[in-house]
């Protein structure tokens, strides 16, 4: 009887823990979906002029319009686009009509078009402010000899090109050969539903195993 009672208590406690973890992930899912909806609304919001002092927290994803010309300097960030393959993001200095020098992510080109000449403008660029968080302990240092970067490090790129540490991700085309890669929320991880399913699935397995152990224990007792 003690063995049965122990298995029952152990099974109920484990089930409660697994169900609480699954429920917590469902709450996290609701929170993340609300956050992503807020980000999407901000990305698609009304376009404004470039703020005088953009704040990486307050102005992240802010839609802006800028007019001016591109410098001939560029930094090339190695990326891979789904269904297309490897290529580069083109990061270039942009001199605004008001005299500011900022960074613009013009978009994607294939590896073969890395060194192609690109139209400097003048033109109006529509895009979103962004400070991508793409650096971790495994990110290689830029290969400056080959002009290949492995992440969009806004402060480092601004220092390299002599601009403000401000990056606009273009959503309008700035050159016929460059495909814009607009900022969106698709790259923000949202795995909470999968985690919840995993915890609830483990809870079902836990119940089945507990019932099996109880049945075996009872069978041995009768035997």
From TrEMBL:
Its main location: membrane. PROSITE patterns: SURF1. Keywords: Cell membrane, Membrane, Transmembrane, Transmembrane helix. InterPro entries: Surf1/Shy1, Surf1/Surf4. It is found in: Cell membrane; Membrane. The chain crosses the membrane at residues 195-215. Pfam families: SURF1. It is a multi-pass membrane protein. Belongs to the SURF1 family. PANTHER family: SURFEIT LOCUS PROTEIN, SURFEIT LOCUS PROTEIN 1. This is SURF1-like protein. It comes from Ruegeria aquimaris. The lineage of its organism: Bacteria, Pseudomonadati, Pseudomonadota, Alphaproteobacteria, Rhodobacterales.
């Amino acid at each position: 009887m003690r063995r049965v009672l122990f298995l029952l208590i152990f099974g109920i406690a484990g089930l409660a823990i697994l169900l609480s973890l699954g429920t917590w992930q469902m709450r996290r899912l609701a929170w993340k979906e609300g956050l992503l909806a807020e980000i999407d609304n901000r990305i698609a919001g009304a376009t404004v002029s470039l703020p005088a002092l953009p704040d990486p927290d307050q102005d992240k994803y802010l839609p802006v319009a800028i007019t001016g010309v591109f410098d001939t300097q560029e930094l090339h960030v190695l990326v891979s686009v789904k269904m297309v393959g490897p290529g580069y993001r083109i990061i270039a200095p942009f001199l605004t009509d008001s005299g500011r020098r900022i960074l613009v992510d013009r978009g994607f080109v294939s590896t073969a078009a890395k060194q192609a000449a690109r139209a400097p403008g003048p033109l109006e660029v529509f895009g979103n402010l962004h400070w991508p968080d793409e650096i971790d302990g495994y990110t290689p240092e830029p290969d400056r000899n080959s002009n290949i970067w492995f992440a969009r490090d806004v402060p480092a790129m601004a220092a390299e090109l002599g601009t403000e540490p401000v990056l606009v991700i273009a959503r309008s085309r700035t050159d016929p050969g460059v495909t814009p890669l607009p900022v969106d929320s698709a790259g923000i991880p949202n795995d909470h539903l999968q985690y919840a399913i995993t915890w609830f699935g483990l809870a079902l397995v836990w119940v089945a195993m507990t019932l099996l152990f109880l049945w075996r224990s009872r069978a041995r007792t009768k035997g």
